[in-house]
Amino acid sequence: MLDIKLMISDLLAKKIPSLNSEDIYNMLEYPPDDKMGDVALPCFKLSRILRKSPIQIAEELVEEIPTNPRIEKVEAVSGYLNFFLDKKTFIEDVLSTVLKKQDSYGARDIGKGKNIVIDYSAPNIAKPFHIGHLRSTAIGNSLYKIFKFLGYNPIGVNHLGDWGTQFGKLIVAYKKWGSKEAIEKGGIKELMAIYVKFHEEAEKAPALEDEARQWFVKMEQGDKEALELWQWFKDISLKEFNKVYDLLGIKFDSYAGESFYEDKMPAVIEELKEKNLLTESEGAMIVDLEEYDMPPCLIIKKDGSTLYATRDIAAAIYRKKTYDFEKCIYVTGAAQSLHFRQWFKVIELMGYDWHDQLIHVPFGIVSLGGEKLATRTGKVVLLEDILDQAINKTLDIINQKNPNLENKEEIARQMGVGAVVFSDLSNNRIKDVSFSWDEILNFDGETGPYVQYTHARACSLLRKAEKEVDPNFNPALLSTEEEFKVAKALYLFPDKIMTAMKELEPSIITRYLVDLAQDFNRFYHEHPILVEDEVLRNARLALVFAVKYTLKNGLQLIGLSAPERV
């Protein structure tokens, strides 16, 4: 498919010798209003280079641009050079490309041979998988799919929070207030209950915190009882987590959590010592980062136990050796930004030239009625409960509207889960989100079910046609404003994927899908598709076919299914 921006930038480069085609390409934009053209060049930046007003530059260029069969006209308006495309050739080019590529429309092989490690989800063992974990899980899963679609080899790592002082707390809580029977029966909810109990009691008896730290030190020293309890807590937790991952349709390439790096940390600590990076401070060992306007990076606590930073440094070195990554991406909350800047700097100070391949992808917090989620106080909303409610609501809607639908339980799962994930990914990832049952279970408007339903509508039209779409359609018959708008939306899909990858921002795909669905539904309501005129019918079905595949590909990139019947 022809790159329209590239075609225009090549034309303009011949008339603006002070800039090359790439410079001009990056200046071109898609106007928000069709009346302003299909592609526009703002001439304001050129004003400094050419020493003329933007209006004068645009008016001079409009006279000099040679005719081109793909461009209907060019206008100079208020310092903008507006290009209007020839509709027939543009629509033919776009639809022919989608009809040919189908499932691979938008895909590229720019990442061939390059490994991308993506660290996401990472729930804490013995704590419930709550709504706050959805953000990392959904964003990371989408980035995984986007990179894979662009030819990279992504490695999805679930860096489980399965090590640390919190397990000392849990051991103390279990020994004082828990029982094997209650935990076997209640699972992770019972583990959370005794964890909350620990914090309540520790406020009255602070010595419990010291007891918890001692148990964690025992874990690090290989104490048999401590490790057996830890493994038991971990097995119970993974069983619960996998229920949620199965509902979401998510799999990981590695579950190597914090405990995996326990035997790899001594070598890292030794390396830090050899490179004279460790300094003693109040009995603890730190890397001093004052020179870089950051607090010290704590490596070993005064009781001899390690911390998140120690394990993260060991993990990064292991991943580089194991996967030789092009990038190692960490999808975690924005509140951890300082933590990542600190240990990224430590990696740099250790002399590793790949330190700039470590990338933190922060996201905003999820609050509950304006209050921060907190496991230690029990203030959480379980993700499994949310998904179950969304699925049940979807099933109720199906039973009302289409009770005889085949596989309706599976379709209810696809759309219910889709509603929850889409709701989360609709937001720019850095934006804070306040959880609302009403919003997440609202399927009206710009939602996942709306896009999924639009895909199913396109599938239904193609089934009713009872005939394969003829690739030799007549693009001249797709002459209406609504049809051209759909074609323009289809054309933007590959560009949106590239932007989402570069900005590590799945919401770009989510918003695009809503726009495409709205453009298609406007076309659907304005123009009959299964008309008697076979030539016109085939042309419009080609448009429907292209929308179907683009919606399907886009939904899959954000981790949603694309049901063909709803």
Task: Give a quick summary of the entry.
This protein has 566 residues and is of the alpha/beta class. Helices cover 55% and strands 11% of the residues. Among the domains are: 4-85, Arginyl tRNA synthetase N-terminal domain (Gyrase A, domain 2), CATH 3.30.1360.70; 394-427 and 435-557, Orthogonal Bundle (Isoleucyl-tRNA Synthetase, Domain 1).
How many strand units? Answer: 13
Indicate the multimeric state: single chain
Biggest beta sheet attributes: 4 strands, parallel
Radius of gyration: 28 Å
Report on this structure.
The protein is an alpha/beta fold. Among the domains are: 4-85, 2-Layer Sandwich (Gyrase A, domain 2); 394-427 and 435-557, Isoleucyl-tRNA Synthetase, Domain 1 (Orthogonal Bundle). The protein is built from 21 helices and 13 strands. The protein has helices spanning 4-13, 21-27, 44-50, 54-64, 87-101, 131-149, 165-177, 180-186, 188-204, 207-220, 224-248, 265-274, 308-323, 337-349, 383-401, 408-425, 437-440, 448-465, 481-503, 507-526, 534-557, and strands at 39-42, 71-77, 80-85, 115-119, 153-157, 278-281, 284-287, 297-300, 327-333, 358-363, 366-368, 371-372, 433-435. The strands form four sheets. Strands 5-4-9-10 form a four-stranded parallel beta sheet, sandwiched between helices. A three-stranded antiparallel beta sheet has the order 1-3-2. The longest helix has 25 residues, at 224-248.
